[in-house]
Amino acid sequence: MDKYPTWQDSAIQPNEKVSVVGEDIIQSEQESELSAIELKAIKAQLTKARTQLILDSPFLGNLVLRLPLIAADSWCKTSATDAKSFYYNPKFIDALNNPQIKFVLIHEALHCALTHFARRGNRVKYK
């Protein structure tokens, strides 16, 4: 048994089922109140930001592209990562401009790159 919890521990994994919608864009089964057109526009914003990151900053863009995008508005208020995927609330992303979206993508990717999950140790997740 490992000394430190990892993303494989059930305590830090979302318990929601997901289904594949595109190559790397995944959508939760519990669909949001947003229409399909609005959700597609939000996914386009994320794709645009990821494309700009890979062109402007290849190292950070590469980190971001390794995380599949998952719409998770039922439990995620802003954005999150479990070291495997990028979870986002479509309404939150829709309220951001392009530089802010790029910042959020980089922020979550760096949680993974800097192994924040392995460093949590025995700390209690919620106090």
Automatic annotation (TrEMBL):
Pfam families: DUF2201_N (PF13203). Residues 44-122 form the Putative metallopeptidase domain. InterPro entries: Put_metallopeptidase_dom. This is Putative metallopeptidase domain-containing protein. It comes from Catillopecten margaritatus gill symbiont.
